[in-house]
Specification:
Elements lengths: L5 H12 L10 H9 L8 E6 L4 H14 L4 E4 L11 E3 L2 E2 L2 H22 L5 H15 L4 E5 L16 E4 L7 H4 L3 H8 L9 E3 L4 H13 L4 E3 H4 L1 E4 L10 E6 L2 E6 L7 H17 L7 H8 L9 E4 L5 E3 L5 H14 L5 E5 L7 H6 L5 E6 L10 H9 L5 E3 L2 H14 L3 E5 L2 H17 L1
Parallel strand pairs: 1-5, 1-6, 2-5, 6-7, 7-8, 13-17, 14-15, 14-17, 15-16
Antiparallel strand pairs: 2-3, 3-4, 9-10, 10-11, 12-13
């Protein structure tokens, strides 16, 4: 990626400044922005994906299969880890700085029109969503896989009318916006279900599934629950593999392929992806070629999602999950891969996250925690995080990321442990930038 020119850097700084307007759930501003652009979201077919965990993985896998099938495919995700450009991709290639600069200049007029019409300022995510859809239209995208930012019902991306809706999982997260009960969160996620448009769901609590089934019935949207229709199992004898060999059975097909992404929780995501692809095939929108789907899935890469960065010693893993459900997936995966070996956590979390609930899933296999803070306004400072960790009974230290990482590596080396950088996608981005800088110096 080339260095940003000054005008693009200034535009991005103005865009980031819009984060100070906060999160404003609602579709009015995004609809106005898209109208000012001529409704670009109507120019291509869409898969709309919501869920508490697994959205990024499911989106990446769906986009990979669509691209491999010969469709020009856009992918819109959030947040980014290192560069803003990561949010907007076509056939696996992120938008270039030159393309971004061109789009930014021409987007300003639509922003001014929408803000003048409504009398208030557009947020960072509203502008970014409109930008992605406009770029997809300009570049002739045939399909776009679109990830919700938060929730679903009032998320900016819910201005689309998709071919299918996908809800990956439901767990407690973003309670300040989505509610404190699973049923409330499920209601918000179910808001992406459109009248007559099929919806695919992954594994989730029965109470959440009941809300989604009711919403689908009310909107005459056919519901496909992936765990009930797609069987995915790890092949015997391969339980400790980081990328396990798996059997997939559905609709008369039986496939054996390698999981494209690490983590036992990816089995649920694979079920969801396969069910989504099967629904598209049933509707005549995609060729029913499951062997080719497996080939496409094998090439999927997704940083900071249960990612092994170094085999060690000591092994080094990175994960951006930030809620108890994500931590449970990590515990299951690393417990199988490294039975009996303790974890040295480099932990950073945002202030609105359930620190104690997250650690509760990992504390049985954690030997030491090194609290740190991401370079983000939402992050808990290292000292405050260390105090909360200490209340769980785990040994803890605090300090900047570089120091925390060095301390974790030393501890893991002395105790036959595994280093895990975790708790926040913001921290994961800081860590990847740190590695990138070190690589350039070398």
């Amino acid at each position: 990626m080339k260095a940003l020119d000054q005008s693009l850097q200034q535009w991005l700084e103005r865009l980031y400044a819009r984060q100070s307007f906060g999160i404003k759930p609602g579709l009015e501003m995004t609809s106005a922005l898209l109208a000012a652009l001529g409704n670009p979201q109507s120019a291509f077919r869409i898969i709309h994906v919501a869920g508490t965990n697994g959205k990024g993985s499911v989106c990446a896998m769906l986009a990979a299969v669509l691209s491999a099938s010969g469709r020009r495919t856009g992918l819109y995700t959030s947040p980014h880890l290192i560069d803003f450009n990561e949010r907007i991709k076509i056939d696996g290639q992120q938008i270039s700085n030159e393309q971004l600069a061109l789009l930014a200049r021409e987007l300003d007029s639509a922003i001014m029109t929408a803000e003048r019409q409504l009398g208030y300022r557009a947020t960072f995510f509203e502008v970014t969503t409109a930008m992605a859809f406009e770029w997809f239209r300009r570049t002739g995208v045939e399909w776009a896989v679109v990830e919700t930012g938060m929730g679903g019902r009032l998320d900016s991306t819910n201005t689309v009318v998709p071919e299918i809706s996908v809800i990956t999982s439901i767990a407690l997260d973003h309670q300040a916006y989505l509610g404190n009960r699973i049923e409330q969160i499920a209601f918000e996620k179910a808001g992406i279900i459109k009248k007559g448009i099929p919806v695919v769901t992954g594994g989730m609590p029965a109470s959440a599934l009941a809300v989604i089934r009711m919403t689908a019935a009310e909107r005459t949207a056919r519901h496909y629950h992936a765990p009930a229709m797609v069987k995915v199992n790890v092949v015997d004898g391969d339980e400790q593999s980081i990328l396990p060999l798996i059997n997939i059975e559905y609709a008369g097909y039986r496939l054996t392929c390698r999981s494209p992404l690490a983590g036992l929780h990816q089995l649920n995501n694979l079920q969801t992806v396969v069910m989504g692809l099967e629904v598209l095939a049933q509707r005549g929108l995609l060729a029913a070629e499951p062997d080719k789907w497996c080939t496409a899935l094998a090439g999927v890469e997704l940083p900071a999602r249960c990612q092994m960065l170094a085999a060690g010693p000591p092994p080094l893993w990175l994960d951006g999950g930030h809620n108890p459900e994500a931590a449970a997936g990590l515990a299951a995966t690393l417990g199988r891969a490294y039975p009996g070996r303790p974890l040295a956590l480099v932990l950073g979390m945002s202030a609105d996250k359930d620190v104690e609930g997250y650690l509760d899933q990992l504390k049985h296999m954690t030997g030491f925690v090194h609290a740190t803070a991401a370079d983000n306004a939402r992050a808990i400072n290292a000292g405050a995080l260390a105090a909360r960790v200490g209340m769980t009974g785990l040994p803890v230290g605090a300090g900047p990321l570089v120091d925390a990482l060095a301390s974790a590596v030393e501890w893991a080396g002395q105790n036959n442990g595994v280093v895990l950088v975790c708790g926040s996608l913001f921290l994961a981005g800081d860590f990847l930038r740190l590695r990138q800088s070190a690589t350039k110096r070398d």
